[in-house]
Write a structure and sequence with these properties.
46% helix; alpha/beta; 425 residues; disordered N terminus; single chain
């Protein structure tokens, strides 16, 4: 009777197993596996990674070569010469960010250094009251000083993909248009998300039946779609804005595009204060005022570094994690507003009156009164233009295109008065 479990039987079967020498095909298979493994390791080494660098168009390389690489201090001086006033801390941070952004683009698109060997891009969030110079700083720095493709867009018009309104692809379509439809140039541009705070999902206080089953397509939905774009991904971007399936597309990599978000974040300070003190009760607890928060408020560093404050305000933490820096901008002081009024606003109105054949003179008391009114309205630099426009409306209506001479704006009590000396044309 045969014994299938005997030791001698197993040893004899084992001795009959074929070796690799008897099967050369198996030996070749193992050799190919090891060769593929070593080739992959060699491709990942820094010395061989340069051979796989993406090729860019000659037009894009020439464009990045011509962008001036200015020192951060020189960038701040240029901003000052071009009329930007105040926000010294924000100017320094943005100038350094711009320097690093340009240097990184030159290394990638001119020197053809792989992105893996370079620091990642920086996204910036600017927070501050209305009229403090957030959007103007971005426009002046990137569009007029560095002259790189820059798109500044109101994010409140956007909705989640598949719903009425613009979606995240529109951002890249506009940037592609600003880059003369060259995707290599668009990949190094700037996208400014203005009114970014309006994406906060908690800002909608509507109450209705079935609200728990509805989607927030304009707030939370847009936040989710911005997550990957702000970091790094390849997106097929339509070349026009009609969202048609027949539109041509260009593939754009967002890992080199710098996103700068701007927002007033009205009520953020109250949200942060309430969240920090809501657990304190009794006489030792700080009283919380439910009165409306002032418009021109200063945000503390501790308030903006706490991500839970943004979550309470209505933002998902993952989106805030995409921003390298969160910069608070302070309300403009009386001295800064007066400098802006003298150096920028008045000159524009004088130029307009000069083109009409009129010389405009504004008395110092008028300037002080306009600044005071702007501080009371808490509208920052925007309030200066609004007040001066209101003061000069009547004289402009009377004398534009019909008279030539001199117009003097004075203040009597709290009322603007104008004196004219001249003649009809």
């Amino acid at each position: 009777m045969k014994s299938y479990g005997s030791k001698d039987k197993r040893s004899s079967d084992k001795s009959k197993q074929p070796s690799l020498e008897e099967h050369p095909l198996e030996e070749e298979g193992f050799t190919l596996i090891f060769e593929n493994l070593f080739s992959r390791l060699e491709q990942k080494s820094p010395s061989n990674r340069r051979e796989n660098v993406q090729e860019f168009s000659t037009e894009a390389r020439n464009f990045y070569e011509k962008i001036p690489l200015l020192p951060p201090k020189e960038i701040v001086d240029i901003l000052e010469r071009k009329g930007y006033r105040g926000q010294d801390h924000a100017c320094k941070v943005m100038a350094l960010m711009a320097y690093r952004h340009i240097k990184r683009l030159k290394k990638i698109y001119v020197e053809k250094i792989p992105r893996e060997e370079l620091p990642p891009k920086s996204n910036i969030l600017l927070m501050g009251p209305t009229g403090c110079g957030k959007t103007y700083l971005v426009e002046l720095l990137f569009r007029h000083v560095l002259k790189i493709p820059t798109v500044i867009i109101d994010i409140t018009a956007f909705s989640e993909t598949g719903y009425i309104g613009d979606d995240h692809n529109t951002l890249l379509s506009l940037l592609l248009m600003a880059s003369d439809n060259n995707p290599d140039i668009a990949m190094g541009g700037i996208i400014c998300l203005d009114e970014f705070d309006k994406l906060a999902s908690s800002q909608n206080s509507a109450r209705f039946d079935g609200q728990g089953t509805t989607k927030d397509v304009s707030g939370y939905g847009v936040q989710k779609e911005l997550l990957k774009m702000l970091e790094a991904c390849f997106i097929d971007v339509p070349m026009d804005l009609n969202n048609s399936s027949h539109s041509g597309t260009r593939k754009i990599y967002t890992g080199d595009i710098a996103f700068i978000a701007c927002g007033a974040f009205s009520g953020f300070k109250s949200t942060a204060y309430y969240r920090q003190n809501q657990s304190k009760i009794g006489f030792r607890g700080k009283s919380y005022s439910h009165s409306r928060e002032q418009i021109a408020v200063s945000l503390e560093e501790s308030e903006i570094l706490d991500t839970e404050n943004f979550q309470e305000y209505g933002f998902i933490p993952e989106l805030l994690g995409r921003f390298t820096r969160v910069i608070p901008l302070m309300p403009l002081s009386r001295e800064e507003l007066l400098r802006i009024l003298k150096d920028t606003v008045i000159d524009k109105f004088k130029r307009e009156f000069f083109e009409e054949g009129l010389e405009l003179e504004v008395k110092p008391k008028v300037l002080d009164y306009i600044v005071e009114r702007s501080l009371q309205r808490q509208t920052g630099a925007r309030g200066l233009t609004a007040e001066l426009t209101r003061a000069l409306e009547s004289v402009a209506y009377e004398y534009f295109h019909t008279h030539q001479g001199k117009v003097c704006l004075i203040l009597q009590g709290n009322t603007f008065q104008t004196r004219f000396s001249g003649k009809k044309k």
